[in-house]
Amino acid sequence: MQQFMLPGKSNFTDALGFVMGAGLDVLRASNFVQLIHGGNSRRPISDTALVTAVFLLEDGTEKEFTRIIKMQQRSSSAILLYLIDKAEVDEKRYLDEIGSSGLCLNFENFFIFQGNVETFVRMKPKNFTSVIEDLCGSGTLRIKYDDLHRTIRKSEDQLNQLALRRKTLMTENRTKKAEMLVYKEYHNLMQELVRILQKLKKSVISEFPCFKYSVSYQF
Where are the annotated coiled coils located (predicted)? Predict the structure, then answer.
């Protein structure tokens, strides 16, 4: 960290955010010149400031990422330069290389600077949960989760409808069984009545041969 603001806890987090590619919207400056030591008082002690982060890779090798602020001559503005292992690259490759190391730079709350700590701590549980989801990446699964939740609710509704239909069919089945029992009882009574009438007819004819008697029945 060379000529980057002044020593201090807040400045260190700003430097860390700067080398990781953070923009002015999260750094404590309105332009990059202010990040140079003395730039806030419009008297920067140098026309250049840089921060280098050294990554220790799994194979034991190191990789350097350097982000440089360079003031333009005859102007109060500055340009940014990006180096990987001291070789200049464009911003996209620089950020892609950092991202390939497993750092999720695109998450809104990847860096929580000192000025935001109090706000972070005072967050409501719902908002705090959203921050945690962003940090761990689970927020990217919300759409899939919501789709699955809707599918489950739809399946539950269909299951409830089937259960209601089953209950209705069971009630109808019991009613039909009761009707069948009544019909069988009626059928048996009619058969018994026919037998009685036939027996009566035979008895009348045997007693009065000349008496004409007919019995008609239908069921």
Answer: 145-203
